[in-house]
Design a protein that fits this description.
Helices cover 29% and strands 23% of the residues. The chain has 478 residues and is an alpha+beta fold.
């Protein structure tokens, strides 16, 4: 019998697993895909929002501002790539200024630190490449950028080291109330738990409907993006937003934590599990982005992708215990600023669980910190010492991102080792660069095969079924 079963391995589920692992107990996270962070967590704007956008006195506003504060320390403890860049909401006319003033008032009520309205002179000092027709902006110095999949995996790994469990390739088929607990039936069998947490992202309404009356539904919102090469680094220094509309925060232009530029998203209703991009969507992104930064070089695009946001059609997140089914909790409708809010949401659910009787006794095995070796960022002396200690650090596998075999070996030795090419990319950035695994892909596949003893043809690009190698030709695997 588990104390808590968490359904969904995105950043919210992983954050909760990490938070619960601070205390003694049996905690299980189940995820239908072959890796954590395979949904919205891997495909979003990767922004740590300041918190001026949510309506005051909402849970969303509280979680956003508190999550912003928590993430900085969390990333420091877990050695997750993060940078406080600040953000700008740029205005061009009197109507934009009115909206910016409204956001400023929202931010003050929400407790966003350092928020202020700046005029064109200061604006262009911060962002020289902005359209010179801009007249003002809302400046939020507490905003930042992050690797969201790394935040999820770091928390999940530490939780596992502290005694928690993660079951992958484990799809939920039914949930039943069973005395004082629950039976969760999955593709891997039945699991018993005292409490069940639904953190299933765009499928959270389907999971909820397995046990409680349907009160809300998720409409997946697709957002398409460009990733520009690191040659465009410095195009913008902060996260640049337009004034928001009813469709959302709009098309942003921002640096990424790996030195690229991200541009997007658009917003439209889409199908579950459909991550395709469209020419119309990408043209929309281009058209709206160049109004703010006319010199964007879209010829430097190295990748397009789309992500799905879980829109429940409500003004707030759905966070807390079901009124209908005691012991069943929802973390649902987590659209932007869900990434930023995840650590705060986790603390709130943990508080509610402890209030409902879950033990609060400290876990002596809880791992509060980790340290990752990143060869790319080492000094010459540190690189020498790393190679001296482990010669595998002297072999570069991914040239674009300067990822060594030593880093890959360390990655494979950690809890929840990657079992696909993209999972390896999310763990250590191998394949993240200009050639998008064109050079390092075959070597990365062979290393996954070597360290996990998996046949090459059984290693997918990302999700199960996304095959790379289909068989042999001319006597060799192709």
């Amino acid at each position: 019998m588990e104390d808590v079963i968490i359904i969904g391995g995105g950043v919210c589920g992983c954050s909760l697993l990490y938070e619960l692992s601070r205390t003694k107990g049996k905690f299980l996270l189940i995820e239908k895909e072959n890796d954590i962070a395979c949904g919205t967590t891997k495909a979003n704007s990767a922004i740590v929002h300041a918190g001026y956008d949510p309506e005051p006195d909402t849970a969303m506003a509280r979680f956003n501002v508190e999550g912003n504060r928590l993430i900085e320390q969390l990333c420091s403890d877990l050695d997750v790539l993060y940078k406080k860049t600040g953000s700008l909401v740029v205005g061009f006319d009197s109507e934009d200024r009115k909206r910016i003033e409204q956001l400023f008032e929202n931010g003050k009520k929400n407790g966003v630190p350092g928020l202020r309205i700046i005029e064109s002179k200061e604006l262009f000092n911060l962002e020289p490449n902005l359209n010179r027709e801009a007249v003002c902006a809302l400046y939020a110095p507490s905003a930042g950028i992050i690797a969201p999949w790394e935040l999820a995996s770091a928390q999940a790994e530490c939780a596992v080291l502290g005694g928690a469990r993660v079951e992958l390739d484990c799809e939920v088929r039914s949930i039943k109330k069973n005395g004082n607990g629950f039976t969760v039936t999955t593709s891997k069998g039945d699991y018993e738990g005292l409490f069940v947490i639904n953190a299933a992202g765009v499928n959270s309404d389907l999971v909820s409907a397995m046990i409680e009356q349907k009160r809300w539904s998720i409409t997946p919102k697709s957002g398409e993006y460009f990733i520009l090469d690191t040659t465009e680094s410095g195009l913008v220094n902060t996260v640049v937003f337009p004034c928001p509309s009813k469709l959302g925060k709009g098309v942003l232009i921002a640096p990424t934590i790996h030195g690229n530029i991200i541009v997007g998203p658009d917003s439209k209703d889409f199908k579950r599990d459909d991550f395709s991009t469209t020419s119309a969507g990408l043209e929309y992104v281009k058209k709206n982005a160049i109004r703010y930064v006319p010199s964007i070089n879209f010829r430097a695009s190295i990748r397009n992708f789309s992500g799905l946001r879980a829109d429940a059609g409500l003004k707030d997140f759905i966070v807390g215990e079901s009124e209908e089914i005691p012991g069943f909790f929802n973390i649902a409708g987590i659209k932007s600023p869900g990434l930023t809010s995840a650590p705060s949401i986790a603390k709130e659910i943990a508080r509610q669980l402890h209030k409902r009787g879950l033990s609060g006794e400290s876990n002596p095995d809880f791992k509060t910190k980790r340290k990752i070796k990143r060869f790319k960022y080492m000094s010459a002396k540190e690189k020498y010492e790393a190679i001296k200690e482990n010669p595998l650090y002297g072999t570069i596998v991914c040239r674009c991102e300067t990822i060594t075999e030593g880093e890959i070996a360390d990655t494979m030795a950690r809890p929840l080792p990657p079992r696909s090419l993209d999972a390896l990319k999310r763990r250590c950035s191998a394949g993240m660069g200009r050639c998008q695994s064109g050079f390092c892909g075959p070597r990365a596949l062979s290393l996954i095969s070597k360290y996990l003893n998996i046949k090459l043809e059984n290693i997918p690009k990302d999700r199960n079924g996304m095959y790379i190698i289909t068989g042999e030709t001319k006597g060799g695997v192709q």
